[in-house]
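Weekly structure sync, notes
Attendees: PL (lead), two postdocs, one rotation student
Agenda item 3: pending single-chain targets
PL asked that the sequence for the first pending target be pasted directly into the notes so everyone works from the same version. It is reproduced below exactly as submitted, 409 residues in total.
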Amino acid sequence: MIYCGIDWAEKTHDVALVDDTGQLLAKRHITDDAVGYKILLDLLAEYGDTEQDPIPVAIETSRGLLVAVLRTGKRKVFAINPMAAARYRDRHSVSRKKSDPGDALVLANILRTDMHAHRPLPDDSDLARAIAVLARAQQDATWNRQQIANQLRSLLREYYPAALDTCATWANGLCRPEVRELLKAAPTPARAARLTRTQIQAALRRAGRKRGIAAEADRIRDVLRVDYAHQPPLVEEALGQQILALLIQLEAACTAADDLAQAVDEAFPQHPDADVILSFPGLGTQLGARVLAEIGDDHERFADARGLKAYAGSSPITRASGKKSSITRRWVKNDRLNHAGYLWAFSAITASPGAKAHYRRRRDDHGDWHAAAQRNLFNRMLGQLYHCIQKHELFDEHTAFSAQLTAAA
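Predicted structure, written out during the meeting:
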């Protein structure tokens, strides 16, 4: 059997082929373009690569055009963590020398000796991969929006507390369009105190507000005219300019998050597993798409539910040495799926009586803290999701939490 290792770089790649005995059969230095990809495929074909029996490939990345080319057909592509590859390098040399051709040889030998211990890239459908792109982009846009909003809040606390008091009762706070329009009209407290009811009402209408404009304008006007401490006028004007610059970034981040959310709303319901995922309490379109993006639709990716739980970081891990043993939470995990799991468990507590009873039992009977109880609930529901997706069954409350519902009753 032939094994291929590719040391990936930005512009060029090093390729190495080895056989079962570890003998180097061929090595190439290819460019990151269509010509280089053709040289690679021709090299693999020269050493017996066929559509029915492709040569497995190890590479240190799971994304990019090179990986897309290699994943066509039935070929198994193994994305090896660079840290793991560095540990394997010590098996072949004690001098700690490093070179790109040498790393390609190391990757090929990883497959030769330990291919069973590594997992190939999942065979997800094109629709699932497209949903993954949109869901991750929307998640990144949401995090970016919140980061800019935090910067804006920190700056407003330095010189403009009235703006924070204005939006204190609104959901989403500084990310609302009403706040952005008001700050554009009055980026400093001095200008805000001079705003008239008509100007405030016009700002609310520009933000898309339809009802209660007059009453809300009166409330905002009263808040903005309360006596606050002020920065010196020149400093206040400079901070106002900084606020306007941040508003441009926040506007772009809000637009990106909304547009990507709409794209997810259109793409996710088209997936065959969408109805199963949406049947679970606490999972909507956006959160369900994030879960699907990380677990994929390759039903053979995980051997059992335990593998999925370990991948999500919801199952505990045991560290034992001699007479010492400790059970702690996992640190090496899929952070995106783990983050979605906490949001899922938090929403499920109020959406599912069984989930709420399970959470209360972990808090009261086992003494778990809030985060630990949430993680335990996520761990249980993730196992139920694995079963339902494998069997393509919808979530059933009484089947999932029969014991908890009986105890609660």
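Discussion points:
- The mean pLDDT is 90.
- The longest strand covers residues 24-31.
Action: rotation student to compare against the earlier draft before next sync.
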